[in-house]
């Protein structure tokens, strides 16, 4: 059986309390008798997307198991890419997929730069379709994203932003 842990909204802000909280969570996960096979960090890694906040997160979220992260609405894609992923900065969505045994973990970037809400773009849906087409048919797939797939805030109103063209 695959065990995956999820951590979200760490909001690293260069204040000790968030580092201490993250370190306690990481220590707890490391001490479990059945340790997770991976840790998913599902957005709002930082409070305001500054490079030094990502440097703080990179240190606090270290583990001897894979840690996969995606951005949320408080994150900056350029700094996220550069500091956390070691890639050139870019404003393109940060989507990635990983195999953990028979499980395909798909990390979907639902953040929209400069917006508090989010949804999956057409580009992300196209990428997701390609990933799903390559995944073994009988293997499980886990989709992770920061924003809920439908908005809990509209109270009965149609939620067209988060229900944009679902994958076929």
From TrEMBL:
GO terms for molecular function: hydrolase activity; metal ion binding. Residues 148-168 are annotated as: Disordered. Pfam families: Metallophos. InterPro entries: Calcineurin-like_PHP (IPR004843), CNP_phosphodiesterase-III (IPR050884), Metallo-depent_PP-like (IPR029052). Keywords: Hydrolase, Iron, Metal-binding. The keyword Hydrolase applies. Residues 4-155 form the Calcineurin-like phosphoesterase domain. Belongs to the cyclic nucleotide phosphodiesterase class-III family. This is Phosphodiesterase. It comes from Nocardia cyriacigeorgica. The lineage of its organism: Bacteria, Bacillati, Actinomycetota, Actinomycetes, Mycobacteriales.
């Amino acid at each position: 059986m695959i065990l995956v842990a999820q951590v979200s909204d760490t909001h690293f802000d260069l204040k000790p309390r968030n580092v201490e909280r993250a370190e306690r969570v990481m220590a707890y996960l490391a001490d479990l008798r059945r340790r997770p096979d991976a840790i998913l960090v599902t957005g709002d890694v930082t409070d305001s997307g500054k490079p030094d906040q990502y440097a703080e997160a990179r240190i606090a979220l270290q583990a001897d198991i894979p840690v996969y992260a995606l951005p949320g609405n408080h994150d900056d894609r350029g700094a996220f890419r550069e500091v956390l992923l070691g890639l050139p900065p870019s404003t393109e969505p940060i989507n990635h997929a990983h195999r953990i045994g028979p499980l395909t973990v798909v990390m979907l970037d639902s953040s929209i730069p400069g917006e508090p809400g989010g949804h999956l773009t057409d580009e992300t849906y196209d990428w997701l379709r390609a990933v799903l087409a390559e995944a073994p048919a009988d293997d499980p797939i886990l989709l992770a994203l920061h924003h809920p797939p439908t908005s809990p805030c509209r109270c009965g109103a149609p939620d067209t932003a988060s229900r944009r063209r679902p994958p076929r």
